[in-house]
Each structure stands twice: as structure tokens, then as C-alpha cells.
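Q: Here's a chain of 324 amino acids. Please give me its 3D structure as C-alpha cells.
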Amino acid sequence: MFPDLRLRRMRRTPAIRAMFDDSFPRPEKWVWPVFVVEGRNRREPIDAMPGQFRLSIDCLIRELEPVVAQGIGGVLLFGQTEGEKDMGGSGAFDPKGIVQQAIPQIKRAYPNLVVMTDVCLCAYTNHGHCGPLLPDGSVDNDTAIELLAKTALSHAAAGADVVAPSAMMDGQIAAIRAALTEAAFKDTILMSYSTKFASAFYGPFRDAENSAPGKGDRKGYQASFANPRNALLESVLDEAEGADILMVKPASLYLDIIAELRSRTDLPVAAYNVSGEYSMLIATADRGWGDLREMVRENILALQRAGTDLFISYWAPRYNEFFR
């Protein structure tokens, strides 16, 4: 022991630390979530998410060029409509919808970029919930999964590599997997938002996506952060229903959940580093209370240490700045 054992020997210089420290995840392990809107030449700053924008397809194609040049592996598309919304969110599965238009254009411009799509109805319903409502105001789960399957099929038909249902409806993975199989989309990857918590950290995203529920909240169908066993059971069931990738969302406050899920499955585990986590670090740095680069690096390495395989994060476009 001391004085013969001195742990500081292993961290004395930058070169020594670099030799023994863990490496940061490679850029191909990263996915950038983006907000796609109708029209042309639209690059609208999102006030609650500095550095992120609502982008028309032409602007998104341009924004992706430096992202792809860094080696970032994929993009996750969130669409929204400026047309009339309805009770069932029919715009989500419109073959001429904004996501359905964006997919083939991105694939033509960047053939090697993995294109993922969020499969949900909330941005397209006139009430902001993730499925049609019953008379008592709750979501009609069984009708919702039929509509989610139609949405996933429309994305697969447009050329999506990965469809990612986020509505947290019971049976949604089985319904989508069956629909994909029946329609001969056997190679389409199904990534489940399998352990998605009813979190207070989604606020900036809902501002960006214009998807906040008009009445009530989503605690009746998203997992309770106070019931982790039930939340993990969601992932166990989604694997049994045919998911190819499981996800924990949010990420930073749920390292124990990521680690526990990693120990239970051989499927890839994705962590969604959500809008509130992103904006929180920016606000801290803007007040001079922390160094942004170092906070981001510490955050991401913690996710990797917990067992994350795929990093869905708004930091993806700044990979070279933070991790090279």
C-alpha cells in the first residue's frame, strides 16, 4: 500500500491517461434526432434547444453534409404537419407526409446514412395524445396500435432503414412486426422506445415538435419513473414481440436502468439523450457554471459505461468538437 502504491502514477500526464482511459463511442454509434417541416428554405431556431432547428427537407439535406462528413451513423426523423389535425392523427401515415417525403431524398443524397423514423401520432392529432381518445379521455390503445402499424408501413415503404415506435401502447411492437412481415418489409429494423419514462425532461422537445397534449398528461401510458421493474418489463415484452433494438429514454438520470437492461438482453441498447438533458447542459454552461465540452464528455462516457450501444443525441452534429 502507500507509499509503494500510488494511483496517481496512472493519471500523471495526458499521454498516460489516454493510454488507460476508456475511449469515447465512435461517430458511427451516434444518431442525430431532427425536426422536419413542410416548405422550402425553412431553418427555424428552436428557442428551448439552442443550436437545433426545424428544417425543411432542402435545408436538412444541407445540414446533414457536415454531420455525415464526421462519420455520424444515422438520423432520426420527427415530422410535423401544418395541415388540419384530426382525432386519429391521419397525417402520420399519409404517404405524401413530410417524413415520407424526406426519407427517399435523404437516402439519395447520403446512401450510407441510416435513416430512422419516429413512429407516433401525437404531432398529428388534434388533442396531442399518442392515439385516438375514448369518451373518458384515455387513449384507445387497440385502435392506436393499428394506426401506428399503418404509420410504420408508410415509413418502410418510403425507404426507412429503421422504424421506431414511441407511443408506449401495449402490443405496438407485435402489431408493427406483423404488419411489416405481411407487407414483405422483412429487413426493416424495429427499434422500440421500450423503456420510455413519463419524464419532465421532454419539455423542450414538445416545444420543438408542437406535440404537447392539450389536456391531461401521458403518465397513463408512459412508464413511471417510480416503478422501475414495470418499466423494465416493457423492454422484456418488446423483445419477445419482435423488437430488434431496445431503448431507454431519458438517458442520464436512468443509468441504473440502462445497466440493468444491458444485463437482461443481448439486443442492442439505445439511450436517448433527450431535449431536457441537452438544454440543461447548455443553460449551465451559458451561466458560467460548467464547461460544456467537459460536461458533454462526462455525460456520454457515463452512458457508455452503463451499457449503451447506440447514442441518440442532439450532440451528434458536434462530435468532432467534443470527442476528437
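Q: Can you summarize the key feature?
A: Residues 13 and 204 are 40 Å apart (CA to CA).
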